[in-house]
Each structure stands twice: as structure tokens, then as C-alpha cells.
Amino acid sequence: MISWDLPSKKVTIDFEQSSGQTMDLQFAIQRTEPLDPGDFRAKKVEQLEELRALSKSDPVELVIHLLASHGGTMTVDALEKELSGVVIPADDFRKWWEAAKRSLRESKRVVVPSRRTDPLSLRSGDLSPAQALVSDFEQARDLKSMAKALEAITSDLALFKADTASLQRLLSGINETAAKNVRISLGPALELLSARDEMVRAFDDIELPAESLRLSDLLASEENRLADALNGLASARQRAIYEEFPAAFGERWVDVLTYIFDKVGTRGVAEIAKLLEERGEMKRLSEYLVSALARRSLGTDALIWVCRERDTTASGIFSNEVGACILNLLETDHLSDGPRKTTRLQSMLSDDKVLLSDIVGSMDVNEARNFGRRLMECPVFSDLDRKSLMARVIKARPETGELVAGYGAKKEQDLLVSWPSLEKKKEELDDIIRNRIPQNTKDISIAREYGDLRENFEYKSAKDHQKYLNNRKTELQRDISRARGTDFKGADASAVNIGTIVNLVAEDGKQMTYTVLGAWDSNPEKAELSYLSELGAALLNKKPGDAVQVRDEHEVTHSYTIQSITAVNP
């Protein structure tokens, strides 16, 4: 509705979101746009019920009409803003849009992007479904989009049975594009060539040009970069690429797959294991995993797979070494500066109700107690989670129950620390509060502006780092409140105490010297031990002539005798 006040050169306009807006006439002429009665925005005012009915009967036509009224292209966010809460109830929009997307893709009349941040667009001209699929490939601007377009072609083979010539013409362009992008986008290039080969195999009358880049040749030439390139590809695509390894690497193909097994992500781990089992090569993978567990070098994805498949494929790999490997990874990740990498591993330990029972079930008494002690001292878990996990261990191995009472008393004791280590902790806490947390807050704010939070890596990374910083701040505040500084002066050297130097000798005459210091004073390069460490705790209160068991970096136990004890600061 418009009303005029010509003497004062004013006009009053009812807008969609507000009514009765008075504007200067000249300004209104410059800033407002007349709409055709058939424009979607006009129909939202004049024929809203018709649009609502159309959203139910023909969502494809509704979206096409909306796109046509906006120049043929718009983002999903813009589309949602136009429809949600007006044409479609806000609570129903997400479900409606998922169904509409499927119908739009089937219709081939609209290009529906895989990423929410990319715009939808009307196809130009009156294309047949087959022509529309070919057009999708020709309009793709990156390798991943090209691969998706080829997959769509392969899934609709019947459309091309009478005309494969148009597909044959695509092959030279695929070859050229993949070859150009190998150095900077190896993963998408592999994905594109794999999709190409899948399409070619689907048609008897399509052949690769002789000069085409072969997937097996590319795999062989880029062996050192394969792990990073394959990580993140879809499971089915990874599987198709792994099946080319025998052609690419000959007799070495199992060795190459085994080498990258722990570096290709969760999906890659599962697909490689399936392929090797199907080809009768599981023994070689098992040997590698058993060795990696013994060395404590198995990564998160492989370790999760071993735990999940412990009753089936990985039954011969799963052992009591798994527990030590899990705790090593959690502790190392906790101490590293950056987003957590072992969150899924920690969650699995909590969610799998029988995993801990299976881990400690095959341990002897001392191994079970050592594992329980490490679990209780692991800084990753909250007190509540730690008690819950330890309860499972005690249920499986009742002889570990004595650890809980001792742990409760130990937790209430002060931490004896050197002055320099205390200052270092305080400086770290100050840096977190004054610098790192404020910077992280800014990073989160900036990352929000990058688009859809569900597909926003920067935002997820910043939020993960926020959790790490807050947890670290809490941990530091708790530890500093319990800390008591010391210079270790006058330590009693009649037995091993905090602030003493211990000389050990083995049966073969080999000598070792350790310095037992405060809770935060571990320095392996200088043979300095925290009194809370496994070896430090084992040495405490021992006297000259007493025997002590020492484990080396390979987890092999050696027997030593205490030869002498002296004070660090007499």
C-alpha cells in the first residue's frame, strides 16, 4: 500500500517487515525497485497461500521460481531467509529442505552444491537430464566438484546408453586438469582419476586416450605423499584407490598399505584392513600393529580400530599393551600445546563399558596394579571420570582396589616443587589468562564470520583450543594452590629422599645416576626425576644396598642396586 503527500514530497510505503514507513519521494524513487506481479517477492505479499501450497506439492518449482526472481542464483542461507518462517514454518524448514534438495538433484534443473556456502543456480537452457549432468562437469571449477559430477554420471548410466560420445570428449579434459593439479592438490587429483576410471569401466565403448595419466602411475610416483593426500577422502573413494595399489606397487603393495595404515584417518584405516583381510594379507598387517604396540608408537585412529575390532579382525593384535599405548597417547596429547587429537580415544575408553575389563583381563597382578596407578594419575580425566573408569578396573581385577584409598590420601597432599618450576607454572597460567584466552576469543569471533559452523574447520579448531585452554587453566590453578616451593636444602641422604642424588649399579657393572627432585622437575636428558614419576616413587625411601627395578625406554625391566646417596644441596 502506498499513500502520497505530493505538496510535501513524501510517500508512505508498507514494506514486508514494517508498515507505514514515510520517505522522501526522490529518495524512494532512487532506493526502491518496482516488482513484476509474478516476482516471488511480490507473491509473498499478494499470493502467500499459493506459495505455501506449492511448497508442499512441488518444492522444485517453488525453488526455481525463487531463483528466477533473484537472477538465477542465491545461497542456501539467502533461500532460507526468504522461505523460513513465512512460506514454510521455521521448525519444518530443515526437514523440508533436505527433501527438496534430493528432488532438485533428481530434476537436474538446478545445480545444487555439496557445500552450503556455495550458491544454488538455475541451469541455462532446456537441457535433457544427460546434458545437465555433462554440463555440471563442464561448469565445475575444482577437482573435487569434477569428481562428484563424474560420480553422478556413473550413477545414472541409463541416460547415456545411446550417447557415450559426449562422455568420451570429457576424458582429455580430465587428464589435463588432473595433471596440472597433482603438485598442489594430490588428493582431489587421485579422486578425479578414480572417478574417471569408474565411469570408463561402466561403458564398454569408452576408452582412455593412450596419453592419459593412469591412476596406478600417479600412485607410484607420489608414494611419499599418499598418506596426507588420502586422509579425508570418502570411504568408498579410498577403497577404490587402494584397490589400485597392486598395479601401482607390484609385490610391495602390502608394505606400502601397511606403512600408511596409521596415517590415513579413521575411514582409511577401516578400508585398508578390509582390503587386506579380503586378499589374505592380514598377517602382515597384524605383525606391524603388534610391533607398533610394543614400541608405543601406534596412533589414535589405528588404536581405535584395534579396540573396536578386538573380538573379530584384531583379536590376534589386542593385548595388554593396548592399555599402556592408550594412556601414553592421552598424556602426550594433554601436554602438547594445541587442539586435542585424542578426544575420540578418550571418549571410547569411557563409552565402551567392557574395554578396560578386556585390557586388564590378561595382565598379571603387578601389570594390573601399574596400569591402575597410571590411570588414576592420568591428568586427562576429571575426578568423576577417573573413579568411574577405575571402578571397571577393580571389577575385573579386585586386587587393584587397594590403590583407590591410597590415591585419595595422596591427592590431598601438597606438591613439593622447586622454586624455578613453580615460577614457570605461574608464568604459564598468567600467559593463558592474559594472552592466550583473549586471543582465542578473538579467533572464535573471526571464525564465526567464515560461514556455516557445521562445515567451518577454523571455528571447530578454535573451539577445541578454547576447551584445551580452559582445562589447562583449571589444572594449573589447582596444582599451584597445592604447591610448596623448596630449594632442597638439607635433604636427608641416609635414604633416597626428594633432593638426593642416587648412584645405581647393575649386575653387569653398568652404573646409572639419577637425581630425585620436585613434582615438576623431570628432565630425562639430565637424568632428573620427579618424585611422583614411576621410577622416582620406586626409589623413595630406599637405602644403600637395596635393590630396585628400573624399566628402560623399551619397557624392559632391569635390576639395580643402590650404591650411594648424596644430597643435592647439603
UniProtKB/TrEMBL annotation:
Q: Which domain of life is it from?
A: Bacteria
Where in this chain does the record put each Transcription elongation factor GreA/GreB N-terminal domain?
421-484
User: Which InterPro entries does UniProt cross-reference here?
Assistant: GreA/GreB_C_sf, Tscrpt_elong_fac_GreA/B_C, Tscrpt_elong_fac_GreA/B_fam, Tscrpt_elong_fac_GreA/B_N, Tscrpt_elong_fac_GreA/B_N_sf
Question: What keywords would UniProt list here?
Answer: Elongation factor, Protein biosynthesis, Transcription, Transcription regulation
Sample GO molecular function, one term = translation elongation factor activity
Q: What is this protein called?
A: GreA/GreB family elongation factor
Provide the Transcription elongation factor GreA/GreB C-terminal domain boundaries.
494-566
Write down the species. Answer: Luteolibacter flavescens
The record ties this protein, via Pfam families, to:
GreA_GreB, GreA_GreB_N
